[in-house]
Design a protein that fits this description.
alpha/beta, 7-stranded mixed sheet, 29% helix, 8 helices, globular, Metallo-beta-lactamase, Chain A
Amino acid sequence: MKRGCAVLLAAVLLLSSSCALPEAPSAEPAPKAKIELTLTIVYDNNEYDQRLETKWGFSCLIEGLQKTILFDTGGDSATLLSNMKKLNIGPRRVNAVVLSHIHGDHIGGLSGFLEENSDVIVYLPQSFPQTFKEGVRLLGAQVDEVSEAKELFTGAYTTGELGNGTKEQSLIVTTSKGLVIITGCAHPGVVNIVREARVVAREDRVYLVMGGFHLGSASTSEVESVITEFRRLSVRKVAPCHCSGDETRRLFGERYGDDYIDNGVGKKITIP
């Protein structure tokens, strides 16, 4: 039964493979999670750990919260699961999957992952096709459809669906050092995502922005403008990868110096 469901979901993933208003915040600031947060990139097209395979796409494991999150699942399950195995990350360590948007390089590994561990909640944008949601449920996972910004569980928030074209959600983790914001591809604009995250979590300090910045084809002046806005928005550290682009990574590295984190598949970032 599960194999048939996986085929159904894989068909939907194939169709989605081309890269083709949040609720009012609470009166009180979001509680700061007292944790040691660990972020591990398990799928990316930038090399870091030479033991691992690099492919176009993105997936990140977030540990240290009430639930262990797999944010996006890369472009295919074979690479995702192989990289996780080499990093000694068992699929059953994951309690929740957060999917940023519908493109295949971010959801392509889901069906194979769910065949290994379906005892998870999959938080996905409400705009996803109904056939995709049904396929996830048939594989045994719970589905939580995200439209507006909300708390997923203690210390973890979603920006809700953002953007007028490709709808995308980003993940926000509150820590005593400030916000950690994880983006899939940042189709709504990475600066817009940071602004929204500060409103949702009622926190001005941003400790880290990590993930795809969607600046691969941006001009130098456009990237410089983003860097200027990041500084204005109190973004302390950056770790761009996936669709950010080599020139973007170089410019952020120059401007951020020691606060720039070289990022790629196998990179582990620990935030005490």
